[in-house]
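Schema walk-through. Below, the input block comes first and the output block second. Nothing else is stored per chain. Lengths vary across the set, and this one has 115 residues.
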Amino acid sequence: MLVSILHRATGSGMATVGAALLVWWLAAAAAGDAAYAAFVDLFTVDAGGLNIAGYVVGIGLTLAFFQHMASGMRHLVLDIGAGYELKRNKLGAILTMVFSVLATAAFWAFITMGR
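--- output ---
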């Protein structure tokens, strides 16, 4: 039940936050240099790296993406008729959450190691 709710929540969250950020970014770019600089300054420090807000939004969207992807794959397996045994179903649900955390950590470790 939790994985199904997380699947819907992460999908809606990515769509809402992603669309809002895209529209805001496009509006800031169209409004001129000052508006675009204000948008960029909200998420970065002067040196160009991410600040706390940038990391929170970036890691949050990444975690939502990996959770949504993993639970989508789980639902695909269930749709073909496999994985309905109680132990296997519960294990699959737990693995989606474990995978999303580990994949997010690996992704951000790879991103930040290049600095």
